[in-house]
Amino acid sequence: MEMLQDAFGPNLTRACKHVATRLKKHKLNELFQDKQLLDLLQHQPRKTVNPAKVEAFVRAKRLPYNRPCLYAVVEGDYKGVSYIKCLRKLYGLYDAGRERRQRVLNAFRFEAFRSDGMQSAHKKIGVAVCSSCQRRCKLAIDHSGKPFAQIVDEFLEHEGMALCDVVVSWAERASEFRCRQLGGRWCAWHDEHAKLTGLCRSCNSAKGSGGYKHRV
Where are the chain's structural domains? Predict the structure, then answer.
């Protein structure tokens, strides 16, 4: 463990930057070998991938957000790997409760992504002028009215639920609500309360949640 920490860096922040830089050297969909990543898999919180069966690693875009993610290739199949969770475990910073909370919040995002409003926005917002910096480029969809986190909180309050009450399951390489009726109500609520616009990737990342913190 100490040798692996020495290789990655003195703390979690440095380790994440180290691995991210290492991964960017590989092209998308290019199979590669990496002994450090293989050793890191020994620190998976839930042991979802057996390191002994890993044939290679690959960076590939993950649905629905179409962002590059890390996969381990096992018997020809791609198994999603979160190197950040592995690093948190390695540095003694992993929190199972935090992971479940994040999994539920990811389900809210995935369900909203499939809503009529978001699908319509994706068709309308493509290559255009960023509403913040006015640069013309491929835009990301942003919540310009209430922050997404606030819309989630208000929905949960309306339903008389807490975040821990929402049961999710894994489907289509993402978390979704197990109760489809709840998913339908959430999508309708999101489309009613969300005001969407287009931002470039840089402005969208810099904006974040506007300082709003989840209250539930």
Answer: 2-90, 97-207
Of 196, 211, 193, 66, the closest CA to residue 131 belongs to 196
DSSP 32: B
Residues 43-57: tens digit of each pLDDT? 999 888 999 999 999
Block residue for tokens 């050297």: 25
d(CA 156, CA 80): 29
| Euclidean distance between CA atoms 65 and 70, whole angstroms | 14
HSE-up of residue 64 (Cα within 13 Å, Cβ side): 19
């998308």: which residue's tokens? 28
Q: Per residue in 114-155, pLDDT tens? A: 999 999 998 888 888 888 899 899 888 889 888 999 999 999
CA 52 to chain centre: 26
The one-character DSSP state at 145 is S
Report how far residue 117's alpha carbon sits from residue 192's, in angstroms, rounded to the nearest whole number: 9
Categorize the per-residue pLDDT at 28 as very low, low, confident or very high, splitting at 50, 70 and 90: very high
Record the tokens describing residue 113, joined without a space: 């992504």
Q: Which two tokens stand for residue 102?
A: 């994040």
CATH number corresponding to 2-90: 3.10.450.40
pTM over 0.90: no
- Name residue, tokens 């293989």: 38
